[in-house]
Amino acid sequence: MPPRSYAHPEVDEITLPRVLAALSDPTRLEMVRRLADGQDHDSLDLAEDLPRSTLTYHTRILREAGVTWTRSEGRACLIRLRREDVDALFPGVLAAVIANAGSEGAE
């Protein structure tokens, strides 16, 4: 079985409204906080308490907005932030979001 392939927007297709919309949800905000270490994470580790269909929905929103990269490795779906791309387009946005993701006001 060939690995799954995922569509990602080109850098010039990433827009601030889509990035902010993707980051506006508390579940996705927590996912981004977990991804902030710059490592690849198995999607199942980003929100352990969610049904797989809900997890897939949230990771798709982040990917389609240009916030994350997704790739298959075996049976795993590995995800990491597109930090360089987002920072180049919208300096400080991810840093501010990540810095405030753990605060009570983030909900």
UniProtKB/TrEMBL annotation:
InterPro entries reported in the protein's UniProt record: ArsR-like_HTH (IPR011991), HTH_ArsR_DNA-bd_dom (IPR001845), WH-like_DNA-bd_sf (IPR036388), WH_DNA-bd_sf (IPR036390)
Gene3D superfamilies, sorted: Winged helix-like DNA-binding domain superfamily/Winged helix DNA-binding domain
One Pfam family recorded for the sequence: HTH_20
Superkingdom of origin: Bacteria
Domain HTH arsR-type: 8-101
Name of protein: Helix-turn-helix domain-containing protein
The species this protein was found in: Cutibacterium equinum
